[in-house]
Amino acid sequence: MKRFNICGAAPIEPLESRRLLAAIVDRVLTIDGSAAVDTVTLRHGSTASSLLVRHNGVEQTFGQSSFDFIRISGGPGNDRVIVEYNGRSVPFGSSPARETTG
After folding, report:
1. SS3 call for 33
2. Cβ burial 71-80 (10 Å sphere, 16+ → b, else e)
3. What is the pLDDT of residue 19?
4. CATH of the domain spanning 22-90, picked from 3.40.50, 3.30.70, 3.100.10, 3.40.190
5. Do 81 and 40 meet the contact criterion of CB atoms below 8 Å apart?
6. For residue 91, cis peptide bond before it (omega within 30 degrees of 0)
7. What pTM was computed for the model?
8. Residue-wise pLDDT tens digits, 49-68
9. Does the pLDDT of residue 5 top 80, yes or no?
């Protein structure tokens, strides 16, 4: 890692690059994957009104009242999407999780 030293001050190390994994845009919770193999897990957060998104081990929490839909775009990798509901995993394509294409 490259270090910078300005005028005798303590060295400054650049932060690692970070990518926004999930965001709410126009009331749609959008989760974007990468070209690699991604694992995305959706479950209730620490409160009943929050949703926890775990994307490759990185967690983000969103208030459920701040979005109306969830869009997951996995990318070209062999991705895995897990929806946990009432303490169990629900495969995509079954109720209450539903998969759409297009």
Report:
1. coil
2. ebebeeeebe
3. 58
4. 3.100.10
5. yes
6. no
7. 0.68
8. 899 999 888 899 999 999 99
9. no
